[in-house]
Design a protein that fits this description.
The chain is 19% helix and 53% strand. With 110 residues, it is of the alpha+beta class. The chain starts with a helix and ends with a helix.
Amino acid sequence: MSEKNRREHFRIVLRSSKCIVEGEERQLQVTINDLSVGGFSFVSPFDVFRGVVSVSFSLGGEMFNRQAEILRKYENENGSVTYAAKFIDYTDRERARLNSRIMQLDAQRW
């Protein structure tokens, strides 16, 4: 079974979208790799994030602010770090709003 098919939520690859991630030690603008209703992965120039972080990003012209829990991190050859995080503590309505934007963005690509 492919990685894409094992995921619980549809995931869209963004690779050039930016977001703000704020942890205990600092706030940084980072690059989003991919995004789903359940979470996202992003690349940071520094290894500074742990635990729960605050995330702010724009998708389809709409701002989203979420809390996310860092699940994994991978060090890249260039010294940057790729993080995987899941969104936590948000309502079904907020989840539906994010899902709607993800699906609209995906449809625009075709």
